[in-house]
Amino acid sequence: MGSQAPQAEDEQPLHVLVTGFGVKHPIPLLSPPLPPSPPFASRTAPANGPPFSPQSFRDVARNPSYLIAASLPSTIAAAEREVHIHVHPSPIRVSYKSIRATIPALLFPPLDAPSPTKQVHPADSVHNGDPHPPLPSPSPAKLNRTPNFDLVLFMGVAPGRADFALETKARRDGYVKEDVDGETMAGDTFWGGSDGNGDGASDEHSEPKGSDAPVHGAGYGAPKVLGTGVDVGDVWRRWRSALPDVALRPSNDAGLYLCEFIYYTGLVEYWRRRGSSRGKEGDEGGAGTEDGENGASSPGGRPVVFLHVPKGVEERDVKKGRSVAVELIRALVESRDAVSGDKERERDAAADMVWS
What we know:
By secondary structure, the chain is of the alpha/beta class.
């Protein structure tokens, strides 16, 4: 029996990470609890009690973002390919320090860790519950540049909104509201300039710095604002077409709180590894690109988005949120493949001109 031909890139399965917010609390809110999706499948209920679920924080008695995430199917079809949805097995803690320590290792495994294809470490290894976990290395020279996932979808609740908002960008500074631990990021310079003054890069197209400076001025030289690498306008049109009766919109203001903080945390990790995107932000926050495979809109750019969901936690609300999230993932995949197809056609056309 002959060997099978390898799958073309546009036929290979894609892997999408989805997270939601909450405070760890051993009271299950879904009955029966949903099994974790791979590659978290081996992550079962903690030994000391039932599965963790979202708990009240501020005026949010239950956080719908994780309820929606936990309800997602493990596999969907999009753009004629299989898409695997990997839901983090517990809500992301509503804590600045926990987010900053958790997300980098979740998106890019450490270089000294085993890294099977699209396989992440167990939740314990990324310090999700540790209020004072170690911070990531600031040196790009020591970074693993192979991501765990093809697309990343963070979700959080916007209590004052009745619609679903696809956020287009995130700010580096200004996080002065207290988190669940009563802490803020006021005066923080971790992502700022290498001299510790927090100035950083002038825009998202600047190259990352390679300093090994202490964490108070870690030397990231990160921009004050980072935009998603997906084509927001194209994604939104596809998303809205699939759900014409649902209030969906792109947004340029993620709220400057934990939701925007986790969004920037994800974006900056891709920015550090990919260098300059040389794209230009569009009116709706999407980024164009002119630099080939490393552009912000390319599959190798910043494939990270954030979805704000309304406050409702009733069964009908979660089902609606599930449908919205599934169609958003499908729109992201279809748009991603469309961008890839356009680039391939451009390369083919250029090659034809050279050899004609």
